[in-house]
Amino acid sequence: MPLTSPDRTPPVPPRRPHLLTRSDGTTVDDPWYWLRERDDPAVRAHLEAENAHTAALFDPLEPLIDALFDGIRGRIVETDASVPVLDDGWLYYRRTVEGQQYAIHCRRPAPAGVTDPGDLPDTDRLPVDPHDPPDDEVVLLDGNVEAAGHPYFSLGVFSISRDHRLAVVGVDTDGGEVLRLSVRDLTTGETVEEVTDRATYGCAWFDDDATFLYLVPDDAWRPFQVWRHRIGSPAGSDELVLEEPDERFWIGLGRTRSEAYVEIHLGSKVVDEVHLVPADEPTATPTCVVPRSLGVEASVEHRDDLLYVVTNRDGATDFKLCTVPVDDPDPGRWTDLVAHRPGVRLEDADVFRDHLVLSERTGGRTQVRLADPTTGEGEVLAFDEDVYTAGLGSVASFDARTLRLGYASLTTPMQVLDLDTVTGERRLLKQQEVRGGYDRARFVSSRTWARSHDGADVPVSLVHRADVAHDGSAPCLVYAYGAYEASMDPVFSSARLELLERGVVFAIAHVRGGGEMGRGWYEGGRLAHKANTFHDLVASVEHLVATGVAAPDRVAVRGGSAGGLTVGATLNLRPDLFAAAVAEVPFVDIVTTMSDPTIPLTVTEYDEWGDPSVPELLRVMRAYSPYDNVRPAPYPALYVTAGLNDPRVQYWEPAKWVARLREATTSGRPIVLETELEAGHGGRSGRYDAWRDEAKVLAFVLAALDVPTAR
Asked: Which residues partner with 94 through β-bridges?
């Protein structure tokens, strides 16, 4: 069914002149600036009118949406269980039940004396039968019970004490990502005490099983304080352990894999600082083991008398691994264990008692290297496919002989494997089941390369039905992100099969600003070089059309958050390339947002997008800002989403952008906005709600590209 504009006039928010003065002294009129006044009844009325207009667009597509939703649901095993993780005599796992929105967190006793996952009998090593849970199962937290009475639910913290008796539970019930923190008895299920109603992600227990650290956000939603809580202490007696006044820095909490230390990590986009507290000294003062130094990033692990530091220090652009004595961690004593290898990005080092797991990236691909923790020497684990994603999974024990791996590709559903580090044997514990008779041989995935405007070769991952010819006739959906050094790695999606079965080609454009090709790829797409991100996306689409992969008039593009910025800026650059676009919670009003430090996250984002008080960076941002560069042009059909409680991208950015696009477009194609009024950045929280939302996106794409709806 082709996409048609609803037979009603789109909402037109009134213009209210509002002059904004930029840091270079120039002024601009932002007539929809008033939409940020969330308490103004006119704002709510406008968002509701937009939602009604969007509903009118989707109303003729409801049969298709229903079919897509049924197709997505029909491929997913709804009553399912995860592979258990062995931790100190317990097997931890999650279950889902058909018809229920949220996961159920469970555990059961492991056989006595078993300390390594590889020694478990199959009855304990493999997932439980979710239709007939074992009699000794203990339900620790049922998300469906917790969510009752709330329009939104997210479990942000679930941290279990080392004696496995208590858990810190942090929940978000409106999508604003501020958590209510409490302590729960895992034996009785009762709440022991309420801790605070203003916390954020991150928690770390000490060995006394009575003391833990947690994080508190400031008004800009930045984790800026570490607090110490002791079970049974009087209300209001929690102690402030550390506060970070620099608004560019976030705080993170955790424990080293060795369990010997609680780690407090302070980081901006380009600088890190690390403090450690002995896990058996709950009242000790944190010790700084990595001082902040301009441009130096670092993460820390521990083994015996050494700290292992992944860092870009001394010009190690793609990072290296150093060691240093834990009792004298001065950076001057850092010694290279794995030297810098240009072109091989070292992303992480997981340090175990007897082995070292290096997570690396080269040539646009992930790889896992198993190495000796004393020499740093080792081999890359081999996998069969050319385009895939692999990484270390959940392993609780520092002394583990058996490691958990995850593996997937665009055509291979997610696999969970155990690797015996002594024999090299791999055992498949679970493969994501795809109901409905999925035949991997009916689909092909590949990697192609697009030449960008400055000569850079951009990797593009592809998947499509094997019988889809590269003759320039196929519809195509291109996904792009391109920020924060985040990599959009190729993985399987059951929902995506609804597109592939209908003959749509799916492509991931691994544009600069992401991390797919190493640190240089990221640096080449941020700050003054941000325009490369959008040119890379243009080049990727042009390449797909030129090589016959995609029809020139049947290309859609999709991106969310910073990826929504990529979509918006690219549409301004080349609106003629696309028939449709989906921009989910898009960051599109970058100049105004980055000029207002009162908006959550603004100052912490200076190192990613630029400080507008710097004239050159302001000039760059103004040149690509999606909202500021909308122009009279034939824009494609657009489906734009927002979240009223979103702390990451404020709802008014997409609302303003849609208003300006509607005023400027010359194409007559529909441009619609849907705002979730009771959710945040990730949209609705239940899995069935998420599937329904995905079905709407797919229906929009299929209709806009005029794809026959029958599979």
From this structure: 105
* From 561, 595, 625, 685, the catalytic residue: 561
Residues 389/367, Cβ–Cβ less than 8 Å = no
**CATH 3.40.50.1820, domain 19-74+436-704, yes or no:** yes
Secondary element (H or E) of residue 536: helix 531-546
Has 689 been annotated as catalytic? Answer: no
Calpha distance 197→180 (Å, rounded): 4
Q: Long-range contacts for 115-121 (Cβ within 8 Å, ≥24 apart)?
A: 115/86, 115/397, 115/399, 116/86, 116/397, 116/399, 116/400, 116/401, 116/402, 117/85, 117/86, 117/395, 117/400, 117/402, 117/404, 117/418, 118/401, 118/402, 118/418, 118/420, 120/86
Residue 709 has what pLDDT? 81
What is the Cα 600 distance to its own chain's centre? 18
Per-residue burial over 655-685, b if 16 or more Cβ lie within 10 Å, else e, is bbbbbbbbeebeeebbbbbbbbeebbbbbbb
What does the block give as tokens for 516?
Answer: 């797919």
Measured at the alpha carbon of residue 400, what is the angle toward residues 396 and 401, in degrees to the nearest 5?
150
Tokens of 512: 């600069």
The DSSP 8-state label assigned to residue 704 in this structure reads H
Sign of the C-alpha dihedral computed for residues 378, 383, 389 and 393 taken in this order? negative
Determine the Cα–Cα distance for residues 616 and 608; give it in Å rounded to an integer: 14
CA nearest to 170, candidates 215, 210, 206, 200: 200
Q: pLDDT by residue (tens digit) across 133-145?
A: 999 999 999 999 9
Query: Residue 250 CB: number of other CB atoms within 10 A?
Result: 20
CA angle 646/649/653 to nearest 5° reads 115
Strand ranges in 304-364 using DSSP code E only, listed in sequence order: 306-311, 320-325, 335-338, 345-351, 356-362
CA distance 212 to 182: 12
> For tokens 């929009």, what's the residue?
700
Which token pair is 636? 């494609």
Q: Which residues are CB-contacts of 691 (< 8 A; sequence separation ≥ 6)?
A: 69, 72, 73, 76, 495
Rounded (5°) CA angle 501-502-507: 80
Which SS3 state, helix, strand or coil, does residue 89 take? coil
Average pLDDT for runs of 10 along the chain of length 711: 80 94 92 97 97 96 97 98 97 98 98 96 96 97 97 98 98 97 96 97 98 96 97 94 96 97 96 98 98 97 98 97 97 97 97 97 96 97 95 95 98 98 96 95 97 98 98 98 97 98 98 97 98 98 98 98 98 98 98 94 94 96 98 98 96 98 96 96 96 98 92 70
- Token pair recorded at residue 291: 């001082």
Q: In the chain, what are the domain boundaries?
A: 19-74+436-704
Residue appearing with tokens 């604003």: 176
pLDDT for 62 equals 97
Q: In this structure, what token pair is assigned to residue 267?
A: 């980081």
For 652, the token pair is 């008014």
Selecting among 229, 340, 543, 681, the annotated active-site residue is 681
From residue 630, how far is each of 128, 319, 560, 634, 653 by CA, in Å?
54, 39, 19, 11, 13
For the record, the structure tokens of 686 come out as 């239940």
Cα–Cα distance for residue pair 234/514, rounded to 1 Å: 47
Residue 7's pLDDT is what?
Answer: 77
Catalytic residue from among 30, 318, 418, 646: 646
DSSP calls for 218-274: -TTS-EEEEEEEETTPPTT--EEEEE---TT-EEEEEE-TTSSEEEEEEE-SS-EEE
Known active-site residue 681: yes
Helical ranges in 82-179 per DSSP H: 122-125, 143-147
Inter-axis angle of helices 41-58 and 652-664, to 10 degrees? 60
Q: What predicted TM-score, i.e. pTM, was given to this entire model?
A: 0.97
